[in-house]
Amino acid sequence: MAKRIVVGLLVLVAAAGGAFAAGQGERAAATDGDIHIALSAPITGDWSEYGIGFDRSARMAIDQINADGGVLGGRKFRLSVGDTEGNPQMGTTLAQRFTADRTIVAQIGPFASSTAMASQPIFDAEGMVQLSPTASHADFAGGSRWSFGIVGTQAGEGPFNARFAYEHLGLRRVAVLHLNNDFGIDSAYYFSKAFEELGGEIVETDFYFDGERDFTAVLTKLSRTNADGLYIVSFYNDGAAINLQRQRLGWDVQVLGTGSLYNEQLIALGGDSVEGVCTATVFYADDPDPRVRRYVEEFRSRYGVTPSFHAAVAYDAMMLLADAIERAGSTDRAAIRDALAETVDFEAVAGNVTFTPEGDAVKSYRRLVIYNGEFRLFDEVGLPRR
Amino acid sequence: MLFVQQLINGIAQGSLFALLAISFAIVYGVMRLVNFATGSLYMIGAFSGFFIVRYVVRDVFVAIFAGAVAGYIVAFVLEKLAFKALRGVARIASLICTIGFSVFLNELAAVLFGSEVKSMPAFYGQTAFRITGVAVSWLQVVMVATAATVLIILQLFIYKTKMGLAIRTVSLDYRTAALMGINVDRTISIAFSIAGAMAGIAGVLAAVYYNAVAFNMGNLPGLKSFSAAVFGGLTSIPGAIVGGYLLGIIENFGVQIISTGYRDIIGFIVLVAFLLFRPRGILGRKTSM
Predict the structure, then answer these.
(1) Where do the CATH 3.40.50.2300 domains begin and end in chain A?
(2) Contact between B220 and A213 using a beta-carbon 8 Å cutoff
(3) What is the tens place of the pLDDT at every residue in A268-297?
(4) What is the DSSP letter of B120?
(5) B287: distance to nearest CA of chain A, Å?
(6) Contact A214 B9 (CB under 8 A)
(7) How many domains does chain B have?
(8) Please, which pLDDT band fits residue B87 given cuts at 50, 70 and 90?
(9) Which of A158, A309, B67, B82 is buried most deeply by CB count within 10 Å?
């Protein structure tokens, strides 16, 4: 009996904790005239660090906008956060909930291309903006007039990296290892296509599933090709594991990867094995630009960490949405969409935003290299000596 | 040379699968329950090893011990909280409970320790010896040696001690065992906790081997090593070890021959094909243990 009571009490405590958390999310809901924005992001699950980065950046942006007097003559923003758990089905459920709530004027998110594309038909049918900070699949924004991506597509990043590899690093035979999801397949495709058009050769392409920790087998296989470069399409955690295991196998090869590698944690996890790894990114935390400094320093003082590029584009998404609402002069869903579509050269921390007719942003990238254990601009320092 | 390299990769990975498979086999043996929280116990072991080397002492063996203790304690608490109350009720309830605990523990770790991947310091990265030019690191030796030591200690425990006898009896029939005067609750609790300790040890080894600790690190190894346990016979501890190593080796050769994306497909095709011909697994008995 005592045991039952203990278990019962634990359940009660857990339920009360949940209710408390929910209550916190809804606080400040009462103020009239607030502009209600939804954020859809993987707050829990395998991608939660990115979801949490979105949440932090979006809140910080809203606090800054509200402190600066809000938009449309003093109206403030409030945010409702939905957790996709990194799962496209969950993202779709959230899309239904958010589009049905008439107080919500637009959604920021989701994080992954797969989730964004799965919920796209709902936003299209209901007529609400889905502004994804990070969905970079080349077919995402073009799939609906209500979909916008601000990170730039793989059709931009892939060829940029191909030129980086071919012209700046002098690579001619590259092996490709990519994450097997919408983002990874798309990234590998655009890189490979552009690299071959430049005259290079893709000697082997292999892929892995999310959650894999052991890359020794595939690296052993790729190391037996005559590749002079390895292109990796992965997040920083996999990127660090790939490089550590590559170093352990004694495969000395120039590594280049997508902008998703750009995270201080790549160096913390990878140690010397990531020295000389190159990547291209739209956001560079050590940029002297005052807007970037303001963002990075406030983020550091609030949360004690340097924002990753994923967090930076979420900040831009919220700032851009506020700008579009101001320009639209109203909070009507369709008016916001039209104002957003007309965005020209919006000044952002992760590269200015101008939308193409499809709703993609064309970005300028910077070449980065890990030099003496730090991310540096490749054009300034070149490759570290080995 | 390529063959040797993939074989070494497979053996190192197989050591992790084998320890986890033992954990599944012990729990299944005494409770006829598949413990889907095994992957989470592995993660908890990894985190305790991580905190030990990060903040207490930089010694891999202390870390392994800490992982075992943490796995033991958490499994003990889980068993007391959930499975004891559900014993004798529908087995499916306990099964769902293990899935629930797995999600609970993973998300709790994400909330408490953060969801980003943490860096585990490296140990024994130096080359121990070379086989046809392929370097084998001390760490790989330590992994195999740990798995072997654990197997020997477990076999001695199960076949040479009174508690081991009790575990074997309970695994045959817990109702009859109770009538014989065996304290069934205590026996199951100890077996379950030992299984937790095995998962914890595997977690620390994985953290050191891959230099990384993350809240979701146990999901995939948990699932794969369950298959390794089935492959080995599910109730047999030596079978679990053989199953674990075979799965590791088959997967690594599969990658070499076809592609990484197919590694799981190959592993599972071999598993299913094998079970079609020998449903009780490699060393499983026709009747229960």
Answers:
(1) 32-152+289-341, 155-281+366-381
(2) yes
(3) 889 899 999 999 999 999 999 999 999 999
(4) P
(5) 35
(6) yes
(7) 1
(8) confident
(9) B67
Tokens of A42: 């993987």
Question: Which segments within B189-283 are labelled E, that is strand?
Answer: 212-213
Q: Regarding predicted confidence, which is higher, B136 or A115?
A: A115
Q: Which residues of B touch A265 (CB under 8 A)?
A: 116-117, 119
Q: Are A151 and A135 in contact (CB under 8 A)?
A: yes
| A212–B220 C-beta distance less than 8 A | yes
What string of H, E and C letters represents the secondary structure of A361-379? ECCCCEEEEEECCEEEEHH
Q: Domain for residue B282, yes or no?
A: no
B13 to chain A, any CB pair closer than 8 A? The answer is yes
Helix (H) or strand (E) holding A175: strand A173-179
Six token digits for residue A13: 């405590």
The 10s digit of each residue's pLDDT in A72-108 is 989 999 999 999 988 899 999 999 999 999 999 999 9
Contacts of B220 in chain A (CB under 8 A): 211-213
Q: Which domain holds residue B130?
A: 2-277
B221: domain CATH number is 1.10.3470.10
Q: How far is B285 from chain A (nearest CA, A)?
A: 32
Does the pLDDT of residue A190 top 80, yes or no? yes
User: Which run of H or E residues covers position A321?
Assistant: helix A309-328
**What pTM value is reported for the model?**
0.81
Model confidence at A128: pLDDT above 90: yes
Note the CATH number of domain A32-152+289-341.
3.40.50.2300
Q: Quick check: B206 contacting A, CB < 8 Å?
A: yes
The partner residue sitting opposite B259, judged by closest CB among A48, A206, A250, is: A206
The H-or-E segment that residue B197 falls in is helix B184-210
Backbone angles phi, psi at A204, to 5 degrees: -165, 145
Interchain contact B224–A (C-beta under 8 A): no
A372: left (phi over 0), alpha (psi -120 to 50) or beta: left
The contact set of A with B (CB < 8 A) is 3-4, 6-7, 10, 44-46, 48-49, 52, 180, 206-209, 211-218, 220-221, 224, 236-237, 240-241, 244-245, 248-250, 265, 268-269, 271
Instruction: Tell which of B4, B8, B81, B115 to mutate to test the A interface (max A CBs under 10 Å).
Output: B115
Instruction: Look at residue B98 and tell me if it is in a domain.
Output: yes
Options 2.40.10.10, 3.40.50.970, 3.30.360.10, 3.40.50.2300; CATH of A155-281+366-381: 3.40.50.2300
Mean per-residue pLDDT of chain A: 89
How high is the ipTM of this complex? 0.76
Q: Is B236 part of a structural domain of the chain?
A: yes
Whose structure tokens read 């709530």? A101
Identity of residue A300 = R
* A contact test, residue of B117, B123, B130, B250 with most A CBs within 10 A: B117
Which of A214, A265, A273 has the highest number of chain B CBs within 10 A, making it the mutation to test binding with B?
A: A214
Residue B283 lies in a domain: no
Judged by phi (left if over 0) then psi (alpha if -120 to 50, else beta), residue A271 lies in left
Nearest to B260 among A44, A52, A207 (CB): A207
Residues in A touching B125 (Cβ below 8 Å):
248
Q: Are strands A173-179 and A229-233 parallel, antiparallel or unpaired?
A: parallel
Whole-angstrom Cα distance, residue B158 to residue B172?
14
Which of A364, A370, A316 has its CA nearest to residue A343?
A316
Across the A:B interface, residue pairs with CB atoms under 8 Å apart total 98
